Amino acid sequence: MTRRPPSYRAGQSDRQGGFFRHIAGVLTLVCLIIGSKSTVAAVITVQPGGAIQTLSEALLLAMPGDTVHVESGTYIESNLRVVKPLALIGNGWPVVDAAGRGPIFEVTAANVVISGFELRGVPVSFVKEHAAILLSETENCDIRDNRFVDNFFAVYLAHSKRCRIIRNSIVGSATELTSAGNGVHMWYCRDIAVQDNQIHGQRDGIYLEFVTHSTISGNDSSDNLRYGLHFMFSDSCRYEKNRFARNGAGVAVMYTSQVDMLENTFEDSWGGASYGLLLKDIRDSRVLGNVITRNSVGIYLEGSDRIVIEANQFHANGWAIKIMANCVGSKVTGNDFIDNSFQVATNSRQSFSEFDGNYWSTYHGYDLDRDGFGDMPYRPVSLYSLIVESEPATMVLIRSLLVDLLNLAERIMPTLTPEALADTKPRMKPIS
Length: 432
Prior knowledge:
By secondary structure, this protein is mainly beta.
């Protein structure tokens, strides 16, 4: 029997090993190709009379990353749980009607998009905050270009971050606070953008509680029962270029610090306890470039410190500003006060805030050095405003000669109005 030399056996072993490695590589490549094809996102179509006729069935079939297209029609569905990252896109404004049986979408997955739907019929609940769309403990979700009609809450966000609520129409028809929810409601959230929405007929148009680093911009929040915008314990937020009109009591910002309120419009909030903007117990915030017109009170400040109120227009309000004596270190500068019934009211002869460089339509001083500022200080708190504060019934005398005489006498010999509350450099012309 001929024995092969060891070198022959070694060569054969190397060739066999190379062959098996080649086969393993090919199999690995095939598995990768098959695996990559299996992860390609699918498109699932929901339509009346189609293979898939309900959203609930589509949500069960969908895999992470899929897109669910919902064609035009009416779908009577509720309690739909979105637990996978996917996109729900409506084509031709499909209607999803809860028919009074509960909420519609509850989203607990991240990276979800809901767009193009009309969502309606979410009932009032005194036990749960039923919403057309609830985002709970999620992130990076987009709710955009939807219509919300007659829902208890429209969009409710809880313990969520980096979400966007954009270009939605939210319309409610509630007539009582106890049976109305909010348009956009945020609870313990951060980095939320609420932008370019139309919100009407809710309790509060937009509500924030324990929310940080969020932006409210370009919205029209009008004709709501209570507030157009309501901040509570929500630091480091910004709202800009919004319109708040004909709300029960305008906008309220409470128990908050470092809020920027920029270039908004506050208008037509009338009533015994109404105002354009309420600032209560807030700190280190700015109110810049806003238009505040035709409100019972333009801005009401209580217990608020180091607030900068600058470059705003106060026009045709009952009171332009009511600032309580417990406000410290605030600055009112460079604003226009035009045709307000009362420019400023306060509850003390002391003032711990500064007024400087504003235009007052009721200032009758002169400018001999022609530097654009009056040579005499202006005291915006009139004697008559103090009388009205203590005896509201005297408001009927507002256009009488007696009131003019009272205010003239007080300007000549100030005795009751707060001497420390004065604009030492009143402007001669409106800034705007």
